[in-house]
Amino acid sequence: MSYTITDYTRRKAKQIGVQVKPSTRKFKKLDVFRDGEKIASIGDTRYLDYPTYKKRYGDQVAEERRRLYHARHTRKTQGEKLAKQLLW
After folding, report:
1. How far apart are CA 42 and CA 83, in angstroms?
2. H and E: helices and strands count for the chain
3. What does the alpha-carbon distance between residue 34 and residue 19 come to, in Å, rounded to a whole number?
4. Which end of the chain has the lower number of beta carbons within 10 A, N or C?
């Protein structure tokens, strides 16, 4: 399944100084690069993210899904930090 990078994610990537490309890994949404070097593969194509929820179901549902995502993702790995910043 292919993931289309959203404008939301592109804006967030620019804000934190990274580049994003569709992932080459199975079931991953994005490969994240800093200074041309790949630093992580993030997101799972089998699940929705904040901008997708917002587009499909509206602001209220998207905000609730974001809250729940943040509540259950508490580890501080680099990949998780990037996923929160770029997809949520």
Report:
1. 6
2. 4, 3
3. 6
4. N
Report the amino acid identity of residue 36.
Answer: G
Alpha-carbon gap, residue 54 to 62, rounded angstroms: 5
Whole-model pTM above 0.85? yes
| ∠ CA 87-60-31, rounded to 5° | 10
Averaged pLDDT for residues 62-79: 93
**15-68 pLDDT tens trace:** 999 999 999 999 999 999 999 999 999 999 999 999 999 999 999 999 999 999
Q: Does 1 score more than 80 pLDDT?
A: no
Q: Report which of 50, 49, 41 is spatially closest to residue 80, judged by C-alpha positions.
A: 41
Residue-level length of the chain: 88
Measure the CA–CA gap between 54 and 5, rounded to whole angstroms: 14
**Residue 4 has what DSSP assignment?**
P
Token pair in block for residue 80: 């998780």
